Every structure is written in C-alpha cells, then in structure tokens.
Predict the 3D structure of the following.
Amino acid sequence: MAFALGAAVPLIPILFSTGGTSIAISAIFSSIALFMVGGLVSIASGKNILFGAARMLVAGGLAATCTYGVGYLLGISIL
C-alpha cells in the first residue's frame, strides 16, 4: 500500500496537466514527499530530522537523474 501511494505522488500532476508544466509540478510534489518521508523516518529512528530529510531528497534526486540519463542514452524522452 505504501509503495503504491508513494508511486502515485509523481503521477498525480501528469493526470491533470500536460507538457513541461506537469513535469515541473511532478518534480515539486516528489521533492516535497521525499523530504517529508525522510523527516518522518528520522523522527522514528531518533536521528536529526533535517539531515534525514535532506538525505532522502538528495537520494531521490540522484535516482531521478540516473533514470533520466538512462532514458536519454536509450533515446527515450517524456519531455
């Protein structure tokens, strides 16, 4: 259930808008969700909230960048 909800976050803006706007809104929604989840995990584990939130945001950003890079190398683009 959690996986499906997390996967839906970046898709919601794409359902309601088109083009570059939907991609930008999707990136913003995803960044907010990653930051919040990182903060919540840090709270649950008793660690520094800001560090955990930032770490999750950076990891998600790197994953998105790698995914975009692979798509670019394969000649596949959603933009």
